[in-house]
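#struct-pred
JK: can someone run the complex with 2-acetamido-2-deoxy-beta-D-glucopyranose? inputs below
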Amino acid sequence: MLPLRHALAVAVVHIFILSESWALAKNINFYNVRPPLDPTPFPNSFKCFTCENAGDNYNCNRWAEDKWCPQNTQYCLTVHHFTSHGRSTSITKKCASRSECHSVGCHHSRDSEHTECRSCCEGMICNVELPTNHSNAVLAVTRAPGTSGGPAPRLQVPGLPALVWASVLLLL
Ligand SMILES: *[C@@H]1O[C@H](CO)[C@@H](O)[C@H](O)[C@H]1NC(C)=O
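RT: done, C-alpha coordinates with the ligand placed:
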Protein backbone atom coordinates (compact mmCIF):
# COMPACT_ATOMS: atom_id res chain seq x y z
CA MET A 1 0.00 0.00 0.00
CA LEU A 2 2.78 2.38 0.92
CA PRO A 3 4.64 2.24 -2.44
CA LEU A 4 1.36 2.92 -4.24
CA ARG A 5 0.64 5.95 -2.08
CA HIS A 6 4.13 7.16 -2.64
CA ALA A 7 3.76 6.81 -6.40
CA LEU A 8 0.44 8.63 -6.24
CA ALA A 9 2.01 11.50 -4.31
CA VAL A 10 4.87 11.69 -6.80
CA ALA A 11 2.41 11.72 -9.70
CA VAL A 12 0.36 14.51 -8.14
CA VAL A 13 3.50 16.59 -7.58
CA HIS A 14 4.58 16.03 -11.16
CA ILE A 15 1.19 16.94 -12.55
CA PHE A 16 1.29 20.09 -10.43
CA ILE A 17 4.73 21.02 -11.79
CA LEU A 18 3.56 20.24 -15.31
CA SER A 19 0.49 22.46 -15.09
CA GLU A 20 2.67 25.20 -13.69
CA SER A 21 5.02 24.94 -16.65
CA TRP A 22 1.96 25.10 -18.93
CA ALA A 23 0.90 28.28 -17.21
CA LEU A 24 4.35 29.71 -17.84
CA ALA A 25 4.30 28.63 -21.48
CA LYS A 26 2.83 32.02 -22.39
CA ASN A 27 6.29 33.47 -21.83
CA ILE A 28 8.19 31.78 -24.59
CA ASN A 29 11.96 31.80 -24.23
CA PHE A 30 13.02 32.13 -27.84
CA TYR A 31 16.58 31.14 -26.96
CA ASN A 32 15.28 27.68 -26.08
CA VAL A 33 13.36 27.19 -29.29
CA ARG A 34 14.44 23.90 -30.84
CA PRO A 35 13.37 23.22 -34.38
CA PRO A 36 11.68 19.84 -34.83
CA LEU A 37 13.88 16.94 -35.83
CA ASP A 38 13.70 16.96 -39.59
CA PRO A 39 16.46 15.99 -41.99
CA THR A 40 18.85 18.79 -42.89
CA PRO A 41 18.58 19.55 -46.62
CA PHE A 42 22.35 20.19 -47.01
CA PRO A 43 25.45 20.56 -44.80
CA ASN A 44 25.55 23.66 -42.57
CA SER A 45 21.86 24.35 -43.17
CA PHE A 46 20.16 26.64 -40.70
CA LYS A 47 16.90 28.44 -39.99
CA CYS A 48 16.13 32.06 -39.15
CA PHE A 49 13.31 33.81 -37.37
CA THR A 50 11.33 35.09 -40.34
CA CYS A 51 8.71 37.84 -40.39
CA GLU A 52 7.83 40.87 -42.47
CA ASN A 53 6.87 44.23 -40.99
CA ALA A 54 5.98 42.80 -37.60
CA GLY A 55 4.93 45.36 -35.00
CA ASP A 56 7.03 43.98 -32.17
CA ASN A 57 9.73 41.43 -31.60
CA TYR A 58 7.55 39.00 -29.66
CA ASN A 59 5.07 38.65 -32.50
CA CYS A 60 7.87 38.41 -35.05
CA ASN A 61 9.49 35.51 -33.24
CA ARG A 62 6.21 33.96 -32.11
CA TRP A 63 4.77 33.38 -35.56
CA ALA A 64 8.03 32.84 -37.38
CA GLU A 65 8.00 30.51 -40.31
CA ASP A 66 9.86 27.27 -39.62
CA LYS A 67 11.72 26.47 -42.81
CA TRP A 68 15.30 25.97 -43.89
CA CYS A 69 17.18 28.89 -45.41
CA PRO A 70 18.06 28.58 -49.09
CA GLN A 71 21.55 27.36 -49.89
CA ASN A 72 22.68 30.73 -51.28
CA THR A 73 22.20 32.38 -47.86
CA GLN A 74 24.68 32.37 -44.96
CA TYR A 75 23.16 34.59 -42.29
CA CYS A 76 20.00 35.64 -40.48
CA LEU A 77 19.16 39.31 -41.07
CA THR A 78 17.11 41.60 -38.83
CA VAL A 79 15.89 45.02 -39.99
CA HIS A 80 14.48 47.13 -37.16
CA HIS A 81 12.75 50.50 -37.60
CA PHE A 82 12.02 52.52 -34.48
CA THR A 83 11.11 56.03 -33.41
CA SER A 84 13.30 58.48 -31.49
CA HIS A 85 11.50 57.26 -28.36
CA GLY A 86 12.68 53.72 -29.06
CA ARG A 87 9.27 52.41 -30.06
CA SER A 88 9.50 49.71 -32.75
CA THR A 89 7.49 50.47 -35.88
CA SER A 90 8.59 47.65 -38.17
CA ILE A 91 10.58 44.46 -37.78
CA THR A 92 11.64 42.25 -40.64
CA LYS A 93 13.70 39.08 -40.20
CA LYS A 94 14.86 36.67 -42.85
CA CYS A 95 17.61 34.49 -44.27
CA ALA A 96 20.23 36.62 -46.00
CA SER A 97 23.19 36.40 -48.32
CA ARG A 98 26.63 37.82 -47.55
CA SER A 99 25.96 40.89 -49.69
CA GLU A 100 22.74 41.72 -47.82
CA CYS A 101 24.79 41.73 -44.61
CA HIS A 102 27.37 44.22 -45.83
CA SER A 103 25.13 47.09 -44.80
CA VAL A 104 24.72 46.33 -41.09
CA GLY A 105 24.58 49.30 -38.69
CA CYS A 106 22.14 52.06 -37.83
CA HIS A 107 20.99 54.97 -39.98
CA HIS A 108 18.93 57.85 -38.75
CA SER A 109 16.49 59.36 -41.20
CA ARG A 110 16.15 63.05 -40.34
CA ASP A 111 12.84 63.75 -42.05
CA SER A 112 10.91 60.80 -40.68
CA GLU A 113 12.65 60.85 -37.26
CA HIS A 114 13.01 57.12 -37.56
CA THR A 115 16.11 54.99 -37.17
CA GLU A 116 16.79 51.83 -39.11
CA CYS A 117 19.20 49.31 -37.62
CA ARG A 118 20.27 46.19 -39.46
CA SER A 119 22.09 43.25 -37.90
CA CYS A 120 23.18 39.86 -39.16
CA CYS A 121 24.19 36.74 -37.32
CA GLU A 122 25.34 33.25 -38.17
CA GLY A 123 23.83 30.10 -36.75
CA MET A 124 20.58 28.28 -36.13
CA ILE A 125 17.72 30.78 -35.45
CA CYS A 126 20.28 33.27 -34.10
CA ASN A 127 18.28 36.43 -34.91
CA VAL A 128 16.35 36.60 -31.64
CA GLU A 129 17.08 40.15 -30.49
CA LEU A 130 16.56 43.49 -32.24
CA PRO A 131 19.46 45.77 -33.13
CA THR A 132 19.03 49.12 -31.38
CA ASN A 133 22.42 50.85 -31.61
CA HIS A 134 25.86 50.62 -33.17
CA SER A 135 27.08 48.06 -30.67
CA ASN A 136 24.43 45.47 -31.52
CA ALA A 137 23.70 46.35 -35.17
CA VAL A 138 26.62 44.23 -36.33
CA LEU A 139 27.44 41.08 -38.24
CA ALA A 140 27.97 38.45 -35.55
CA VAL A 141 29.83 35.44 -36.89
CA THR A 142 30.21 32.47 -34.60
CA ARG A 143 31.11 29.58 -36.84
CA ALA A 144 34.82 29.37 -37.68
CA PRO A 145 35.29 29.15 -41.43
CA GLY A 146 35.83 25.60 -42.66
CA THR A 147 34.31 23.83 -39.68
CA SER A 148 31.22 21.80 -40.33
CA GLY A 149 28.54 23.38 -38.20
CA GLY A 150 25.66 21.05 -38.93
CA PRO A 151 22.41 21.40 -37.06
CA ALA A 152 22.37 22.79 -33.54
CA PRO A 153 22.92 20.05 -30.96
CA ARG A 154 19.70 18.79 -29.46
CA LEU A 155 19.56 17.36 -25.98
CA GLN A 156 16.95 14.67 -25.62
CA VAL A 157 16.45 14.86 -21.87
CA PRO A 158 13.30 13.24 -20.48
CA GLY A 159 10.99 16.17 -19.87
CA LEU A 160 8.22 16.60 -17.37
CA PRO A 161 5.60 14.83 -19.50
CA ALA A 162 7.81 11.72 -19.51
CA LEU A 163 8.07 11.89 -15.73
CA VAL A 164 4.31 12.16 -15.40
CA TRP A 165 3.82 9.16 -17.64
CA ALA A 166 6.37 7.19 -15.66
CA SER A 167 4.46 8.05 -12.48
CA VAL A 168 1.12 7.06 -14.02
CA LEU A 169 2.57 3.77 -15.22
CA LEU A 170 3.79 3.09 -11.68
CA LEU A 171 0.20 3.41 -10.49
CA LEU A 172 -1.15 0.86 -12.97
C1 LIG B 1 22.97 49.25 -27.09
O1 LIG B 1 21.74 48.66 -26.78
C2 LIG B 1 21.85 47.64 -25.81
C3 LIG B 1 20.49 46.97 -25.68
O2 LIG B 1 19.44 47.88 -25.70
C4 LIG B 1 22.34 48.26 -24.49
O3 LIG B 1 22.45 47.27 -23.51
C5 LIG B 1 23.69 48.90 -24.74
O4 LIG B 1 24.12 49.56 -23.56
C6 LIG B 1 23.61 49.90 -25.88
N1 LIG B 1 24.95 50.37 -26.20
C7 LIG B 1 25.20 51.63 -26.48
C8 LIG B 1 26.62 51.96 -26.83
O5 LIG B 1 24.34 52.51 -26.44
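RT: quick notes.
Helices lie at 2-24, 57-62, 160-171.
The domain at 45-140 is CATH 2.10.60.10 (CD59).
JK: thanks, will look after standup
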